[in-house]
Structure to design on (301 residues):
């Protein structure tokens, strides 16, 4: 098994480096569309030469949607007769990551090593940095994505590559069955008799129609991975002088998409604020009081 490749310079065998980044909407960051595009842009360079299959199915989701994700996994297993060992669903008991592993590295490896990647898109999951990263990583590696909508999220709220990929609604029984059929084809597995899982189809559809509980969604900072060394450097640079992502990219010697991603994470964490009068890449950013406290805490100010 080869290492997961994170950039054109480390592209694995049989892969080619990306040639263009996805265009980000100039409106930032009020809509889900902008945040999705930013994360895809940042993940565009992810490539992997991995040939070994680690899992049959990887279900990307927000922990807020744990009940629906668990029911969906149980349905997929029952319909296609898949072992629990062949499924990763990190918030569901029986399908979690092994104890002691580095979460970010393990998820990045496993989502690229799964045959089928089902992304559960809800009002909660599109606010999750982990879900957006998993989507971007899978798309950037040019691997199949199976997006499914639930809890009131509609196609018009999607953006980036997903606008060109057909998404199914878990709220509709026929579309749940279609998802199972498509997965069976992708995995080369036969269907079990419908009577063995018919009631589970109805259960998934019912849960998918339930109202989203956005007030229960963790704060952005709770969902963010810890800041990287580059992000701390950017924060320190902004503290010394107001800047924008375009200037920061030049100073750091990184691609604009990568700078956009780091700036977005700092905004999400409440460490910097942004002036929305310009396009995101050129918008002026300033450090917040919380950002100054973070630098003081780290001994950088």
């Amino acid at each position: 098994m080869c290492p997961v490749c994170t950039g054109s310079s480390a592209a694995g065998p049989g892969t080619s480096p990306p040639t263009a980044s996805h265009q980000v909407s100039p409106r930032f960051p009020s809509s889900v569309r902008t945040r999705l595009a930013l994360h895809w842009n940042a993940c565009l360079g992810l490539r992997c030469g991995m040939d070994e299959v680690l899992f049959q199915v990887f279900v990307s989701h927000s922990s807020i949607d744990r009940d629906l994700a668990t029911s969906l996994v149980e349905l997929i297993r029952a319909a296609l007769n898949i072992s629990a060992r062949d499924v990763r669903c990190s918030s569901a008991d029986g399908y979690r990551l092994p104890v002691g592993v580095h979460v970010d590295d393990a998820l990045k490896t496993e989502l690229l090593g799964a045959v089928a990647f089902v992304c559960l898109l809800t009002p909660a999951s599109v606010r999750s940095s982990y879900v957006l990263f998993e989507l971007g990583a899978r798309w950037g590696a040019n691997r199949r994505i199976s997006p499914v909508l639930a809890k009131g999220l509609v196609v018009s709220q999607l953006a980036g590559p997903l606008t060109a990929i057909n998404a199914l609604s878990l709220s509709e029984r026929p579309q749940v069955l279609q998802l199972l059929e498509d997965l069976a084809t992708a995995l080369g597995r036969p269907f079990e008799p419908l009577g063995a899982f018919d009631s589970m189809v109805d259960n998934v559809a019912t849960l998918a129609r339930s109202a989203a509980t956005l007030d229960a969604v963790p704060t952005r900072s709770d969902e963010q991975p810890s800041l990287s060394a580059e992000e701390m450097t950017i924060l320190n640079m902004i503290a010394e002088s107001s800047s924008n992502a375009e200037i920061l990219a030049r100073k750091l010697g990184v691609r604009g998409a990568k700078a956009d991603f780091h700036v977005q994470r700092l905004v999400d964490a409440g460490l910097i604020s942004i002036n929305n009068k310009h396009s995101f890449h050129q918008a002026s950013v300033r450090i917040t009081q919380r950002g100054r406290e973070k630098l003081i805490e780290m001994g950088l100010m």
